Amino acid sequence: MSQQKAEEKKEKLTIVMFSGDLDKALAGFILATTAASMDMDVSMYFTFWGLNILKKNEGKIPSKGLMRKMLNLINRGGSKRLKLSKFNMLGLGTWMMKKLMKEMNYPSIDDFITMAKDMGVKLIPCSTTCGIMGLPDEGSFRSEVGSLAGAAYFLAEARESKIALFI
Amino acid sequence: MSQQKAEEKKEKLTIVMFSGDLDKALAGFILATTAASMDMDVSMYFTFWGLNILKKNEGKIPSKGLMRKMLNLINRGGSKRLKLSKFNMLGLGTWMMKKLMKEMNYPSIDDFITMAKDMGVKLIPCSTTCGIMGLPDEGSFRSEVGSLAGAAYFLAEARESKIALFI
Amino acid sequence: MSQQKAEEKKEKLTIVMFSGDLDKALAGFILATTAASMDMDVSMYFTFWGLNILKKNEGKIPSKGLMRKMLNLINRGGSKRLKLSKFNMLGLGTWMMKKLMKEMNYPSIDDFITMAKDMGVKLIPCSTTCGIMGLPDEGSFRSEVGSLAGAAYFLAEARESKIALFI
Hints:
The structure is a homotrimer of 167-residue chains. Chain A is α/β, with parallel strands linked by helices and 167 residues long. The first copy, chain A, has 9 helices and 4 strands.
């Protein structure tokens, strides 16, 4: 019976998205969408700078307190503001990479988020770091994003996963 | 019998702590202590800059040879000297993050090391990188730290683990 | 029968080499060669900046188009040009680390690539990022490197692996 159950269940991929760098975000979404297309069950768990990937691009982030307001001003985030971890070169390197990807009809981060959502990939912000960084559940993130969850949630998913990665 | 054995054994989490950044150290300890509280068996294996997290905060690091002395002067480490990987801003960003965490009664890295130790998390420095960087077993690390071990030890732990992460 | 099959099969380690930093490259190769010496089956999958580790050291990288030519000029790569992620200090830190390793008769990245290849470790460049970054299969990489493969290949390897890491 346990074998039968294993056959019914899809294999899982769980990714911690710690980084808010454009290149690491791309790596994460390439793996997530490829895994989903291979009929795997995929969860992406966003924490620390990775939360920037999910922040809405327009408007203000509604954080409370002077220091958190400042943090979300400096560390604004949003899929369109991500930068390369290397060779950003005041934006030139990031611009070049985006240009090269577009030239190859390669998806942008925005496209990847939509694709991932459509393929059933779960996009989960880490509740602990949202608390520290002053990111309320409502109003901070784009519409594709699921409910906040803590580290225990990630660990529970990860230990049932065939593959768990920290990016 | 193999099922019975599986029930007796705790599930394992093994983490390579490669980075000495404050934010990555926090991510590692949040996962480690949460996993321990979920009754998992946790090993943290510190290598390269991650060794900085475990260096004692006070006194000199007793390395031999001019170059290793220099390295441990520039790369002094200690839980209180860790910096954010992003937005350190000459220390302002790191100070802000610590302030925000304190405001929420969130543990510091020092608290996390004590908690982890009390919960049975193993804190293991990588013997190979200790050798290269001139960190002798005695006198380099704080008291919570276990014996040094090599990459083979990590791999043996990791392959018995439900979750293995490289942070 | 399935148990018999499991006994015949070697346990696997699969590593994504995303970073082109000297320290992370070392960490990857230490794990890969140690695992191979423990009779594990090892695949290293190089993507984004990690491709720099495998680029040939001599001659020009034969990319097409002005922007890709520029990218491979700035981001030249090659095992001998890798830098530390921290304390590069205009090359001084990287030079010191290499010196300290040599003093201990520790292998260089070049030695590690040869060793890994000899031990049967698969060195696989990611076809997608090769495409974006303008790295043709022929002429970009050193002789030890295997055929290019996509993300689906990595995921297929990783889900059969005991340990999968993203470095």
